[in-house]
Amino acid sequence: MGAPWTGVTAAQASGPAAPDRLANAGRSPTPVPQVPAVGTTPPPPDWKRPLGTILVESGDLGPAELMHALKAAQGDEQRLRDILHLNGTVTEAALARALATRHKTSVMDPDLVPPDPRLIERLPPDEWLRLGCLPWARVGGATLVATTQPETFAQKAAELQRYLGPVAMAVITEYDLHRTLTAACGSTLKQRAESCVAARESCREWNTGRFGFALWLGLAVLAVSALQAPQATFAIVLTIVAVALFSGTLLKIAAAATHLRGRSSTPGPGLHGGPRPVISILVPLYRERDIAPRLVARLGALTWPREKLDVLLVVEEDDSLTRNALRRARLPAWMRVIVVPESSLKTKPRALNYALGFARGSIVGVYDAEDAPAHDQLHRVAARFAEAGPDLACIQGVLDYYNPRTNWIARCFTIEYAAWFRLMLPGFQRLGLAVPLGGTTLFFRRDILESLGAWDAHNVTEDADLGIRLARHGYRTELLDTVTLEEANCKTFPWIKQRSRWLKGYAMTYAVHMRDPRLLWRQFGWWRFLGFQVIFLGTLIQFLLAPVLWSFWLMLAGLGHPLAEALPGAALFGLIGLFLVAEVTNLTINLCALRARDHRGLRPWVLMLPFYFPLAAIAAWKALIEMGASPFYWDKTAHGLHDSLPQPALTGG
Description:
Blueprint: E1 8-9, H1 10-13, H2 18-24, E2 31-32, E3 34-35, H3 51-58, H4 63-73, H5 77-86, H6 92-102, H7 117-120, H8 125-131, E4 133-139, E5 142-147, H9 153-164, E6 167-171, H10 174-195, H11 208-228, H12 230-262, E7 279-284, H13 292-300, E8 309-316, H14 320-328, E9 335-340, H15 348-356, E10 363-366, E11 372-373, H16 377-387, E12 392-401, H17 408-430, E13 442-445, H18 446-451, H19 462-472, E14 476-486, H20 492-513, H21 517-544, H22 546-550, H23 553-556, H24 569-593, H25 609-612, H26 614-627
Parallel strand pairs: 5-6, 7-8, 7-10, 8-9, 12-14
Antiparallel strand pairs: 1-2, 3-6, 4-5, 10-13, 11-14, 12-13
């Protein structure tokens, strides 16, 4: 038999001093019914009054506002609650009071009645977040449990009773639950955010000293070899970079041709019928002075219902600049600020991991601070997840720039992004290869994301790494032709620093996943394994050893080349042919990627790309040195320098 229903009150649960404090706060304790044990049936809810009626009677809601909300909710009580709160009609505190009245219980205030930390230790903090509950105090033979969702408390009772024994219910606001749990378990949450990925798939155990020694030893050996046998050394290096260029060019041709041949211009369907999922959007911010107005305007342009939208602005605890800016801003109710505890490790993936536990949605997306997504983007993402199989774990949108005409670097950057997101990545998907993700406009099935440990907190290119881990575990990524506009990083030194971080992450990702090549081969199969080599190792080799290839331009200038006489004629002509094919391939792919109306004016600037990519060679060497000196250092990209977007993008394409 289950435990009987009792008259435990929130005031009684806190001990003798609690009634005075509650009385001083102007609150009268109300009986809290205890949820029955497993196997019993709670009494019928006939005594419950409509939530809207309680809010109107308390003066927190006007009759006209209630009628409007009821019409939008279409008779769904849970949706009514979300509409009232997330549309800003009723405060969270007022809703909590109304729910407590409806369920004949009390609202817990941690400032007046702090919880018993020993009870909180019964489960990991992420489990309390999942349940939306927090144990508060022992009262007689029961444990008082504060919940943000009293409507579903009876369904969670069986699970709670396994750890707490008989339970009684109180109500708490989500804000108070989160800050209470953070205060009690902040160190645990911080540690989990930094180490949630399995050690064998993480770079957190990277041996910086050993890599640094190997790097300098390798460079020394190369230098000695070049002095002792310059032609042989140069020929070996040339062969390596030529193979990388050849394989990379073949892959580009295959990816572009495969995508163009199978490309459909029909937009994806909308979500028709059935309940819409809650979508949580994580927006990591760092040192952003005045980003809030733009964030609210751009994300507010999304047409997804507000009661199903959960935007988390993720900021570091010591980032007073951003925190003060957000504190001054009038954020809508569907936006929340998540403060990440201070740590020596300050990376975007660590912040995302920490915020993920506080998200409400079954779909989790990531945007950057300056992003302006297409208005219908979330509708299309939700529709694709709904119609796809359960192995579709991630949807990657198309990234583009809203300031391509700022200077020549911005133009070249826009061309590069157009080729990567509109041809290469969709082509990799169609070829069945693992897709290295971009860092924004990403959407995940939350359960799959959490099962893999989410992001590697130590990898500075966490997006590409996550794309590889998804593929290793048998999940798919799809490209969706919905566009998010962002700001092109178009100053020379900031561009080099950003590209250096990306290439350092690529190198780290390659090193981590090649720890056990045989296991990777078994998980990938030979086709994906070879594709991984070309995309990651081939890219790094081409950027690092590009000067070897550029040296052959000396021949066109009539200056000769040290290997011109040493190489057989066939080999020399083969190299020249490879260079020409590679350049024609790059030119053709970039022109094809600029078919959109807004991009056509950039076509003449394709000829400037040979002067743009040497910057990446500099970034590659910077990245290689940092891997042996500061592998986890995050070179922050400044936003808002060229932020002149008149309005967000309208649709995909």
